[in-house]
Structures are given as structure tokens and as C-alpha cells.
């Protein structure tokens, strides 16, 4: 494995959307993003990343970033609309997240999905060394493994799905369900976040394709595609070191002062996405204020909503609803110069994010469905003081690992309210045994352990072929 090159194939290149004035590109590191997750895995070895640079039309050659060679895939405006905004985020995304919003189906979107996946496969086939490991990432590119196997059967092909894989009754709604499954089965190893996703995939491969599934994987066409659950994680040591810096500690104190030195700070950091449960969380907080169980300014909620996908109508509508609800809560329960909810729709750098984590007594991570949710793990790692409480949705992949969190059903508003109160009543100055157990877990199961586990399993899957 060490003698072959490593090629990551993902929808986007892990760089900021625009170069600095001197033409210097930086690694894009947004909370929970793919670039953030893979950064420590790729920067300690020669690696190539194939993906779209973020701007329609031709892309000039790009410099290496943090030692990673970048290979841009050109997408037209039509490609972006029909593949990314269309099939990936208006058809697959809602289906893969329990159909929180209805999935939309258009035949031209499927045609674009095929066309764009083939383009990614062509680029990867061109740059991969003989016998290279090619690691295809996520739901945007589910056809690439089979396409790549046809082009380059010498390659060792891995596929990892970062989002949930849905139960059969949802996946069966896809008009092109067989093609989607067959595309994934081109990989030597198909990785999922949780074991129930593996189970769903096995059921569908047998039902739709007539394949044979067992504990190893799925056998079809005389070969086996191995499967497994590999829960992704974070660079725990990096976050701990960052959160321990004097600058971060000082910034956390300044943030609390800027908030009016409240007794309790609740923090949520989410991409603006209808799967994240932001509206449910705001409803629970509003009712706590209305019931008098929490009072502003003694308790404040800081809601960070990271913008993205705002060209997709469902996400644009969510942004408008969230902004209206924040305004309504502050109008009813805030007062001049004092907000009950502090809403920030922006991207924070790593230092600012660590300071936010250190400033928060309670971290509320309550998605309706999430493949993992790395923000929850980052908060745990950042609390080097041993204090703080994590309120976590049982429908986030992280809940299977961070079992000592205050687990909630985000659809149960009364349950969310009661659990927030329970977490708020913990002494913020006293180290938490719950947090200590979770910190031990994320130290042992960090991003390097995840990558080693997956790549070792991929090597074993390819050994006997």
C-alpha cells in the first residue's frame, strides 16, 4: 500500500473559493467538512485530490496545497445546476436524510449525474499510478467506482459514504436505483459511517440486483465488494492543542463578555441545512423562554449557521425561516442591546471556532439525521478543561460513539427542552465525568485511526483478488 500513490476523488477540491490577491490558495477547513476531515490524513504523505474548484468553466492549473497535488475537474454552469444542485442535493440528499424534504426527480439531472461522474472517473484514471489506491468520496460520485474499474482494473478502489444510507423503502423511490447500487459495487471496499447503513445496502443489493450479501460484503458478477462501518473522526490532538492556546482562552473570555457575561451559554454550529434540526432547536428554546424555565440575558443561545447551497431553493427557504424565527425570539424575549439568540451566518476560522467551543457551557447538536457530525466531536476535544455538556441527537452518527452525551430525539420538543435544562443545570466550573469519557473516546478514535482502519481494510480486500 505504501508504494502506490493515493488519489482522493471528491466533488470539491479542498480549497477556498477564491485565491488571495497574490494567488495563494489555502486549504478549505469548514466545521464538519470533508477537507477538514481528510486534511491530516493527506498532508503526511504524497497525495492527489481530484475535484471541482468551485467556479464554472475552465480552471487553470492549481498549485499544490499543503503538499497535496490538486487536479481540477471542469464543470459548466449546466453541470453544476443539474448534477450538484439537482440530482445530488435535490434528489439524493433528501432521500438519504429520511426525506425530511421531498426528493425531486428530473431525467436531465440523472443524465448530468452520469456525465459528471464519468468526467471524474476519467480524470482519476489519467492521474493514478499503476496499482494506485483511489478513494472516492460521498454521494455526489456513487457511479465513479464502477466507471473507474472499467477504465483501470489495476486500481485499488475504495468508496466512502459520509452521509446516511437510507432504508430500502426510501432508496427504492429512485428511478435509477439499480445503476446507483452497481456504481458503488465497483469498489473493492465500500465504507459507511454506521453498521445499520451496511445492513440497508446489503438488503438493497440483494433485492434490486439479486446479489448475495454476507458479513464480508456483496458478491456480484463473480467478484466481492467488501463492506464495513468506519465511523469518521477528527484530528483530536490538533483541536486539543488549539483549544489550549492562551489566545483561544483569552478569546473565549472575550466572547462571554461580548455576550453580556451570561450565566450559561448554549452553542450550536451547523451548516444551514434542513437536516440539522435548527428550526426544531429554536422552537424548543423559544418555549423555554416563554415558560420562564430559562431567562435572557442569564442564558443565551449562540446559533452559528454556516452558509452553503443557497442556490438550492429548499436551503434558501430554510435560511429565510431561520432568520425570521431568530428575529421573532429576540423581539419577544430580548431587550435593547441584549439578544436572547445571537445568530451568526458566517464561516469561522479554526481559532475562532475553538474559542466558541471553550466559551460554551452547553453544545447543542440536534440534527434530524446526520451521517456522523464532527462538530460534536470537535466540541468534546476542545474542552481541555474537562467542563461542558453535549446535547446530541440520537439520529447523528456520533451518538453511537458519544453515548455519555445528553441524547435527545430532536422531533420531541418537550424532550429537547427537558434535556437542555438538565444540561444547563450541570455545574459549568466542575469537570464532567460524561465529558471525560467522551474525550477518552475521541482521543483513541481520531482521524488517523479512522484512515488506518479504512485503508488497512481496503488493502485486505484487494489482497486476494
Supply database-style keywords.
alpha/beta, 465 residues, nine-stranded mixed beta sheet, 15 strands, globular, single chain
What does this structure look like?
The protein contains 16 helices and 15 strands. The protein has helices spanning 34-42, 77-96, 107-127, 144-151, 168-171, 177-184, 195-209, 236-244, 246-258, 278-291, 313-333, 350-359, 374-382, 413-424, 433-444, 447-463, and strands at residues 6-12, 47-52, 68-72, 133-137, 156-160, 189-192, 212-213, 217-220, 223-229, 264-271, 299-306, 341-344, 362-365, 389-393, 406-408. It has a nine-stranded mixed beta sheet, with helices on both faces. A six-stranded parallel beta sheet has the order 12-11-10-13-14-15, sandwiched between helices. Helix 2 crosses helix 3 and helix 8 (236-244) packs across helix 13 (374-382). The protein starts with 5 loop residues before the first strand and ends with a helix.
**Gap from first CA to last CA:** 15 Å
Percent in strands? 15-25%
**Global mean pLDDT:** 92
Strand order of the largest sheet: 3-2-1-4-5-6-9-8-7
Shape: globular
Rg, Å, rounded: 22 Å
Strand runs, count? 15
Number of helices: 16
**Uncertain ranges:** 18-22
Structure described in brief:
It is globular, with a radius of gyration of 22 Å.
Which secondary structure elements does this structure contain, and how are they paired or packed?
Layout: E1 6-12, H1 34-42, E2 47-52, E3 68-72, H2 77-96, H3 107-127, E4 133-137, H4 144-151, E5 156-160, H5 168-171, H6 177-184, E6 189-192, H7 195-209, E7 212-213, E8 217-220, E9 223-229, H8 236-244, H9 246-258, E10 264-271, H10 278-291, E11 299-306, H11 313-333, E12 341-344, H12 350-359, E13 362-365, H13 374-382, E14 389-393, E15 406-408, H14 413-424, H15 433-444, H16 447-463
Parallel strand pairs: 1-2, 1-4, 2-3, 4-5, 5-6, 6-9, 10-11, 10-13, 11-12, 13-14, 14-15
Antiparallel strand pairs: 7-8, 8-9
Amino acid at each position: 500500500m505504501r508504494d502506490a500513490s493515493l488519489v482522493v476523488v471528491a466533488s470539491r477540491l479542498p480549497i477556498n473559493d477564491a485565491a488571495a490577491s497574490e494567488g495563494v490558495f489555502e486549504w478549505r477547513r469548514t466545521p464538519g467538512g470533508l477537507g477538514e476531515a481528510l486534511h491530516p490524513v493527506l498532508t503526511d504523505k504524497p497525495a492527489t485530490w481530484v475535484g471541482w474548484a468551485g467556479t464554472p468553466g475552465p480552471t487553470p492549473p492549481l498549485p499544490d496545497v499543503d503538499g497535496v497535488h490538486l487536479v481540477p475537474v471542469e464543470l459548466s454552469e449546466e453541470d453544476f445546476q443539474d448534477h450538484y444542485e439537482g440530482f445530488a442535493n435535490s434528489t439524493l440528499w433528501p432521500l438519504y436524510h429520511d426525506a425530511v424534504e421531498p426528493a425531486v426527480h428530473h431525467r436531465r439531472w440523472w443524465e448530468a449525474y452520469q456525465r459528471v461522474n464519468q468526467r471524474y472517473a476519467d480524470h482519476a484514471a489519467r492521474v493514478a499510478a499503476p496499482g494506485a489506491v483511489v478513494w472516492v468520496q460521498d454521494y455526489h460520485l456513487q457511479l465513479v467506482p464502477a466507471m473507474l474499474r472499467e477504465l483501470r482494473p489495476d486500481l485499488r478502489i475504495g468508496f466512502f459514504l459520509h452521509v446516511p444510507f437510507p432504508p430500502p423503502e426510501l432508496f427504492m423511490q429512485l428511478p435509477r436505483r439499480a445503476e446507483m447500487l452497481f456504481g458503488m459495487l465497483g469498489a473493492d471496499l465500500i465504507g459507511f459511517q454506521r453498521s445499520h447503513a451496511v445492513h440497508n445496502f446489503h438488503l438493497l443489493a440483494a433485492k434490486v440486483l439479486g446479489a448475495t450479501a454476507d458479513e464480508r460484503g456483496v458478491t456480484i458478477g463473480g467478484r466481492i465488494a467488501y463492506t464495513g462501518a468506519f465511523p469518521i473522526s477528527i484530528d483530536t490532538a490538533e483541536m486539543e492543542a488549539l483549544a489550549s492556546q492562551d489566545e483561544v482562552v483569552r478569546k473565549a473570555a472575550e466572547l462571554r463578555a461580548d455576550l453580556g457575561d451570561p450565566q450559561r451559554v448554549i452553542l450550536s454550529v451547523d451548516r444551514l441545512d434542513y437536516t440539522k434540526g435548527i428550526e426544531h432547536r429554536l422552537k424548543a428554546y423559544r418555549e423555554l423562554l416563554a415558560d420562564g424555565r430559562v431567562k435572557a440575558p442569564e442564558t443565551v443561545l449562540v446559533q452559528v449557521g454556516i452558509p452553503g447551497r443557497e442556490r438550492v431553493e429548499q436551503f434558501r427557504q430554510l435560511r429565510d425561516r431561520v432568520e425570521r424565527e431568530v428575529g421573532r425570539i429576540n423581539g419577544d424575549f430580548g431587550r435593547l442591546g441584549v439578544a436572547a439568540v445571537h445568530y451568526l451566518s458566517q464561516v469561522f476560522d479554526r481559532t475562532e471556532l475553538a474559542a466558541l467551543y471553550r466559551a460554551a457551557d452547553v453544545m447543542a447538536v440536534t440534527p434530524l439525521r446526520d451521517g456522523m457530525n464532527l462538530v460534536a466531536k470537535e466540541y468534546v476535544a476542545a474542552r481541555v478543561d474537562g467542563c461542558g455538556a453535549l446535547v446530541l441527537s440520537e439520529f447523528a452518527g456520533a451518538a453511537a460513539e458519544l453515548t455519555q452525551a445528553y441524547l435527545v430525539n430532536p422531533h420531541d420538543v418537550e424532550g429537547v427542552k427537558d434535556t437542555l435544562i438538565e444540561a444547563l443545570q450541570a455545574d459549568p466550573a466542575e469537570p464532567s465525568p460524561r465529558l471525560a469519557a467522551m474525550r477518552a473516546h475521541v482521543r483513541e478514535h481520531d482521524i488517523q485511526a479512522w484512515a488506518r482502519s479504512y485503508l488497512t481494510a481496503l488493502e485486505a480486500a484487494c489482497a486476494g483478488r
